[in-house]
Amino acid sequence: MITPSKQEWSRALSLHGSLGRALAVALLCLLPLGCGKPDPGLVTAFPEPPPAPTVDASRPNILLILVDDLGFTDLGFTGSEIRTPNIDALAAQGTFLSGLHATPTCSPTRAALMSGVEPHLAGLGTMAHGVQPNQKGLPGYEGYLNDRVVSIPTLLRDAGYNTAMAGKWHLGAGPGQMPGARGFQRSFSMMPGGASHFADAAGLTVFERKVTYFEDDQPVSLPADFFSTTFYTDKMIAYLQQMQGSDRPFFGYVAYTAPHWPLQAPDDYRDRYRGQYDEGYEALRQQRIAAARARGLFPQDAPVADLPAFIPSWDTLEADDRQRSARSMEIYAAMVEQLDAQIGRLLDALRATGQYDNTLIVFTSDNGPEGNDIGQLVLNRFWLPLAFDNSLENMGRENSYVWYDAGWASASAGPFHLYKSFTADGGIRVPTVLKLPASVSGSMQADQRFTMMDLAATLLDVAGVEHPGQQYRGKQVLPLSGRSQWPLWNGSASPGETAALVMELFGRRMVKLGDFKAVYVPPPFGAGRWQLYDAVQDPGEVHDIAAQHPQVMQQVQQQWQQYVADNGVILPEGDGAYVVPPATATR
How far is CA 374 from CA 116, 260, 288, in A? Predict the structure, then answer.
């Protein structure tokens, strides 16, 4: 995946032979683990619940399943060749919601989902490691879920729900910021954005070489046979079994790290897609687009954007590069199939205890697929070859660190443009499955546009819990930004006019207004101006029609300016993304 040039190696290793290599490793090991981390601050949250109220045991349980970096067409029922029978069956029993919009990356989405508040207000106006100098120290850019919000699990716990989570937190690791302080009675959690999926717990950067896991906010060791997706499932099943006899409903949050890089899979899954992707990402993308059209998920006659110019044509790659690239996609597919199997185990556990029927189940992803070149992250070009065995034979195993290319991410996004970190629909439209409790017979609109903040508000509504507004237990808090979808889901209301949706991350902006979508991406990757698309006839964002609709563009500007004022948005200087694609065209 990453091969340093001779010039780069000569700069990194000015000495010769094993002595030079040893010194290079020693220098890497001397780098401070805390470098680049935000000030952890101190959050005064609501760690202790008030006296437990009397609870109606018939209230529905809630199971929220969040996966990491999954593309819109990566599931069998959305057009994938990847085998996902359990999620497909859940969608067949429930409803596939095609209109959920995440934010372009993980922690802002999680902030919105765990608070119901706009990420710029809740503390994750940008990624913690991406806070720019002009944003540092300002409200909304704390880099963790701040103390101006009361979390959704806190409100559910205080209303009598049992609460448990397993998986990725990514909302702060300082005092008062961890899951237990934000409403989870039981938790097994990983604090940062990712790590090795195996027991070595290797971090994503040289600055965090080994990740610590926590149970109930206390550090714990991992068993030798640890694999993240399996272990998170084990923990959630155990927590739910422990809570079963309490006569209280539960809120379970499973935040799987898969299929986030590094791409890894257990040995019994790693080779299940051997040779499946040898024809390349362009061929796979065409297959996925055709399947999405056939399933009615994308208009038959709508245009599809070309692959970005910086993605090389498959047939121009060297044979070795094609082999390694295809292998990375094989491992990604294996991760998704193994993820589906573990979700199947979790659902089977609910059926075995009789809890399945009375459980609202939501399955979704935190953003679109990862297409950014992770090799551009600081020092990765030098650190990864020294620290990991990324040989073709070892790819996907413990002690490997690989990811797939932008071409495969574009295939995962299918007919939608671009991928994670962009406000194009490939970065923010996420596949979502909803299974209602058996007592509710709703008929929702599957393509209704809504956000993670709306989903958070909906979960409270399902539980019969009212958000306190601006004060909770003697403390000032922010009101919900989201709007509950529960009346639409349970059939007690009909869809009305869809509100405008505005979003910003890394200076990349988006406004959805009626049947239009406007996108602004700063240089060097974008045009540095607003572009407008017909979101109904052109959901692939191909034809810029801004010049033909000056009145719409005026409304877009008004919506944008209002969003900035309401949410305290501080734009970075230029493009603030963690990786910026090359400006040179290769296709």
Answer: 30, 12, 24
Q: Which residue is catalytic, options 101, 120, 129, 170?
A: 170
Instruction: Give whole-number Cα distances, 442 to 338, 362, 370, in Å.
Output: 31, 15, 34
In three-state form (DSSP H/G/I as H, E/B as E, the rest C), the secondary structure along 32-88 is CCCCCCCCCCCCCCCCCCCCCCCCCCCCCEEEEEEECCCCCCCCHHHCCCCCCHHHH
Strand order in the sheet with 250-255: 95-97, 432-435, 359-365, 61-67, 250-255, 162-168, 186-190, 213-215, 218-220
**Residue 571: which of 135, 220, 162, 153 has the closest Cα?**
135
Number of residues that make up the chain: 587
Q: What whole-number distance in Å separates Cα of residue 20 and Cα of residue 23? A: 5
Long-range contacts of the stretch 471-474 (C-beta < 8 A, 24+): 472/46, 472/150, 472/155, 473/46, 473/50
Rounded distance between C-alpha atoms, residue 352 and residue 407, angstroms: 42
Render pLDDT for 474-531 as a digit per residue (tens, 0 to 9): 999 999 999 999 998 888 887 777 889 999 999 999 999 999 999 999 988 889 999 9
Residue 170 annotated to the active site: yes
Distances from the Cα of 530 to the Cαs of 72, 499, 518, 526, 581, in angstroms? 25, 20, 6, 10, 19
The answer to whether residue 120 is catalytic is no
The catalytic residue among 106, 120, 260, 467 is 106
**Alpha helices in 253-362, H assignment, sequence order:** 267-270, 281-294, 319-352
**Exposed/middle/buried for 370, CB within 10 Å: 0-12, 13-18, 19+?**
buried
HSE, CB side, 13 Å, CA atoms: give it for residue 192. 22
* pLDDT, tens only, 435-482: 999 888 765 557 889 999 999 999 999 999 999 999 999 999 999 999
CA-wise closest residue to 467 among 149, 211, 235, 60: 149
Cα–Cα separations (whole angstroms), residue 404 to 162, 321, 504 = 39, 12, 26
Write the DSSP assignment of 6-25 as a string of letters: HHHHHHH--S-HHHHHHHHH
**CA separation for the pair 216, 534 (Å, rounded):** 48
SS3 100: strand
